[in-house]
Amino acid sequence: MERYESDTVVIGAGVIGLACARSLARAGHEVLVLEKNAVYGEETSARNSEVIHAGIYYAAGSLKARYCVEGRRALYDYAATNGVPHKKCGKLIVAADEAELPMLESVAEKATANGVEGMRPLSRTEALAMEPELNVAGALLSPETGIIDSHALMLAYLGEAEAHGAQLVTGSTVTGGHVRDDGRIDLEVGGDEPLCLTARHVVNAAGLWAQSVSGKIEGISVVPPLALAKGNYFSLTVTAPFKRLIYPAPAGGGLGVHLTLDMQGRAKFGPDVEWLSLDDPAAIDYSVDPARGDSFYEAIRRYWPGLPDGTLAADYSGIRPKIAGSDYPDYVVDTHLPGHVMLYGIESPGLTASLAIGDAVAEAIGGT
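RE: above sequence
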């Protein structure tokens, strides 16, 4: 088996891995990005809502809250500077009846605690003036929420990383490894020509596969359990009468079935939450059961009673790599091995938080 040495290896070329590669390369590291698929960003990063989140719902002081707010502020500037299609369209969080109004107050309190700018309560009249098709007793306006082309964003991250010397190698799966006595990590990398790669720094940004990758490396002893939550999306086959994203008042631990728009103005609803009984990402079935549409119609018509029959089409699904054992799990940025960073549970709002996460990883690893 051929043996090579590298300064810094990033495992995984989704939006988080590419953001880390960008930040590390800009900091002067020689970066090699290993991606098991043939193309970067094929899994979780290609199966999300493409929403730029304001940072509203997360526990104050959590990594999710901090990285989301920091990342969102940086992301709008980055997208504008680098020509990444995006739009700060805003969103309304709506109470369909008066019983839900206290939920909006709770959301507003969380947003304030997280430092989210511009949140404003709306009366029924004010909300209807913005979005006349709503059934609403009141609403909360989030002007900082937006949408972005996730594929264009990943391409921009990759281009900037490569401009600073980083290299992406696709078709490269980490099949094993061990932590050496000197602190470096030997990675066994499978592909057309298997090799052993000795890295001074390793960043595990493998997303759904992060726990699996760490479990194959002897000497990584702290690996949190994985729980997989499938989110199904249905697309709207007619033109949506909304200019903003529409979210119901949160209840039952979730954000509800909400309406999002893409850069072309097409509307989709979701995700719902379907907990999977498996913990092997290779066994995931990404197909969407059309029968789930019945519950979507019911949920959507609470805030949009005019949704026509037969206009929802099963579209796509994505998987959230959650940390098992907690109803509201936070991100895990594991630095127990000096010079290395293992990222677990990087689910939504990962895309929004990506720049902040990348910079945090680069700071944790330090200079060259």
